[in-house]
Amino acid sequence: MIAVVAVRDGVLPLGAEETINEARGRVLLVGTGTEVARAELAGALSAAICWEAGPYRPGSWARALAPELEAEDVVLLPASADGRDLAPRLALALGRPLHAGAIKIDPAGASLLRGGGRSLLDVDFIGPVVATLQPGSRGTDDRSGKEVESRAISPDIVPEPDADYEGLVPADPATMELREATRIVAGGAGLGSPEAMDLLGQVATALGCATGATRVVTDAGWAPFNRQIGTTGQVVDPDLYIAVGISGAVQHVSGIGQPKDVVSINLDPSAPMMLMADLALVTDAAALTVALAGRLGVTAPPPEGTDD
């Protein structure tokens, strides 16, 4: 088993270390700045292949990488934006099935999320496969002190430009996966109504943030399940987390990672989320959402409700 990780200017994608750990520390780093990425991953590696392939070209990369990977029974990529893009192309180039959305994988099979994350499907492999691993689903092991086998792919393997690739389009914060969001505005029961949650989503988009929610909100149908943050939803790790009307139950807080900055809006100054916030605003969450919408030029019916 080997991990394949696309690198952009030495920056690793979300879920890279978990994917490498699942592949027992074996990785092929492809892209730009691969040696920088290898140095950053030193404690997670047992074997590393670095390929300076230039700017991201998924079709050409897949065709060029196939001969290097054909001896590997399982080729595993993180389910990041680039990983989800490159994985099906690799599967086609290698003539293998693709198993997407795994939360656990080994040489014999995988556990896959299905139905928007509400069900789990266990599959047994009957031959070589390509798979993607969901970020936040697995931990990492420390391999510091162990000797790492490292080599570079011959520079004569240079892909031709993809005729259909025109560049990278920035993700829409309103629809991007929460695991990949660096800024998140999340709503809780303190918003008081589905209308308030809808308005908060518009405010988040206007701020360039992704929209998240607590389990109470998704269970009530105010937001789709794929927006739920917590141990039974999405595990995230943004730079900025704005909690609006969220008390801070442990099931939710354990899923927000380690944000650099946390802002909390709630009527209860002693709520757990308020105590962990860098900036805590003691005010009505729904009313503040309306005020923000007005400042940002977002028009919607004013929501009703107060913090609980």
Annotate the secondary structure layout.
Elements: E1 2-7, H1 16-22, E2 26-31, H2 34-40, E3 47-52, H3 58-69, E4 74-78, H4 81-94, E5 98-106, E6 109-114, E7 119-124, E8 129-133, E9 149-152, E10 183-187, H5 194-206, E11 210-213, H6 215-219, E12 240-244, H7 250-253, E13 261-266, H8 272-275, E14 279-282, H9 285-296
Parallel strand pairs: 1-2, 1-4, 2-3, 3-9, 4-8, 5-8, 10-11, 10-12, 12-13, 13-14
Antiparallel strand pairs: 5-6, 6-7
Helix pairs in contact: 3-4, 5-9
Can you offer a commentary on this structure?
By secondary structure, this protein is of the alpha/beta class. Helices cover 25% and strands 25% of the residues. The chain contains nine helices and 14 strands. It has a nine-stranded mixed β-sheet with strand order 7-6-5-8-4-1-2-3-9, sandwiched between helices. A five-stranded parallel β-sheet has the order 11-10-12-13-14. Strand 13, helix 8 (272-275) and strand 14 (279-282) form a beta-alpha-beta unit. Helix 3 crosses helix 4 (81-94) and helix 5 (194-206) packs across helix 9.
Low-confidence stretches: 302-308
- Find the count of extended strands (DSSP E, 2+ residues): 14
| Backbone shape | elongated
Fraction of residues in helix: 25-40%
Q: Which H/E pattern describes the elements?
A: EHEHEHEHEEEEEEHEHEHEHEH
The major beta sheet can be summarized as: 9 strands, mixed
How many separate helices?
A: 9
How far apart, in Å, are the first and last alpha carbons? 49 Å
Q: Let me know the average pLDDT.
A: 85
Proportion in β-strands: 25-35%
